[in-house]
Amino acid sequence: MRSLLITGGAGFIGANFVHYWSRKYPRHRLVVLDALTYAGNLASLAPVSDAGQLRFVHGNICDSDLIDTLLAQEDVDTVVNFAAESHVDRSIVGPDPFIETNIVGTHALLKAARRAWSSEQCSSKTYRFHHVSTDEVYGSLGPTDAAFTEATPYSPRSPYAASKASSDHLVRAYGHTYGLPFTITNCSNNYGPYQFPEKMLPLMIVNALEGKPLPVYGDGGNVRDWLHVEDHCLGIELVLTHGTVGETYNVGGNSERANIDLIRQLCGLIDAAFADDSNLETRFPRCPAARKSSTAELITFVKDRPGHDWRYAIDASKISTALGYHPQQTLESGLHQTLRWYLDNESWWRAVMDGSYRAWIEIQYTKR
Ligand code: NAD
Ligand code: DAU
Question: Which residues span the domain enclosing 127?
């Protein structure tokens, strides 16, 4: 039986991971540590927290005393570090929290894990510090460049990407210098349930349903490699259960799309959903599909993101060959499932969208 400390477990990927892990390993102890920033929501954990398997702790990964206490009290053998500031646009407007959480916070976790796991009586146990990272550390690709491999040199280009690159370096340094048993995954763009509606896909869904503009940065030609969040969880599971300590694994969906193509595809799915279900016209009367118009008419080209990376693409052959990783969802099936989730969970996204989110979007919108 494992005892996991899951940091950032009330955020998008962390919460999906908690659901995933509690379904597959109901006897494991799950301790979620989350600061509940604007991006963290206890409502995302609600279906699990009833099970008694989960302990939620409201706290910060920079709080060394708290981490020491949790690692000892819960006899933690596995740390999965999702906690981060994760939105590129926010890192451009205000990088400080990115440095604090992503770099200083990761370092605080590393120090605590080293302290907790280096004593004599711990020597017979198996420990793992798994760090969840991103493909953005590798920089930006041109149209014909080969996809990122684990050997691609780091070239982060936004404050967010630079803070994640720093944290990756710290994790590897703790492995090399102190023998901390770590693994890292660098993953492409995730989408799916419980994603805060500031990231591109949920923002487009929510805006479309409310009849608001769909803000496409630049000409919409930037390319991302999309992966359903459950397939990211599957990748992390394989690395935790069969991965080699000290190794890095890229995780991706082999689903590159230009933003504008993905947004048009999503608009088509929304139109089809309204055509199939007349209740949607009543629930979302401002969506163009409610009056049999095309949702794509809301597409609005806006000023580009400063330093906008042009293309990301992941070569996931290492994890596929070494660990038998294969994503279960296609982009088509995953988009369909995700749209359905947002249609069925209006109360979740309305609840997370009040307060700071509104203020943030309004500031961004007036600045463009
Ligand atoms: P998110 O912003 O949805 O969630 C982050 C969570 O961390 C929130 O619950 C927040 O409250 C918590 N948090 C923030 N600062 C904290 C602190 N100091 N102490 C404790 N908790 C804190 O992010 P996400 O999209 O779920 O991403 C999770 C991880 O995966 C991040 O490390 C991110 O870099 C990485 N990642 C994300 C993607 C993606 O597409 N979203 C892709 C690859 C990697
Ligand atoms: O690649 C992995 C990364 O993916 C993660 O590390 C980050 O945490 C995650 O936020 C994501 O970063 P991106 O910047 O790629 O994601 P975002 O959803 O912000 O934007 C996706 C693309 O869509 C990007 O090219 C910018 C564009 N975009 C985004 C928003 C929010 C728009 O055109 N309009 C928008 O309103």
Answer: 3-196+226-255+310-330
Of the chain, the percentage scoring pLDDT greater than 90 comes to 91
Q: What mean pLDDT do residues 111-122 have?
A: 86
Residue 286 has pLDDT above 80, yes or no: yes
- Grouping H, G, I as helix, E, B as strand and the rest as coil, residue 227 is strand
Report the distance separating Cα 215 and Cα 182, nearest Å: 39
The catalytic residue among 20, 138, 160, 249 is 160
State whether the beta carbon of 158 lies less than 6 angstroms from ligand 1. Answer: no
CA atoms of 220 and 42, how far apart (whole Å): 34
Annotate 242-284 with DSSP letters as a single string.
HPPTT-EEEE--S-EEEHHHHHHHHHHHHHHHHHH-THHHHH-
Q: What is the pTM (predicted TM-score) of this model?
A: 0.96
* Residues 251, 240 contacting (CB under 8 angstroms): no
Please check whether residue 297 lies inside any domain of the structure: no
Place of tokens 């006899």: 75
How many domains, in total, are found in the chain? 1
We report the CATH number of the domain holding residue 30 as 3.40.50.720
Q: Is the pLDDT assigned to residue 34 strictly greater than 60?
A: yes
Q: Which of 100, 81, 104, 111 is nearest to 7 (CA)?
A: 81
Residue nearest to atom 29 of ligand 2 (CA): 200
Rounded Cα gap, residues 155 and 297, in angstroms = 37
Strand pairing category for 223-228 and 256-258: antiparallel
| Any domain includes 278 | no
What is the whole-number distance in angstroms between the Cα of residue 51 and the centre of ligand 1? 24
Top mutation candidate among 12, 37, 86, 88 for ligand 2, by most atoms within 8 Å of CB:
88
Residue 155 lies in a domain: yes
The pair of structure tokens assigned to 95 is: 């990088």
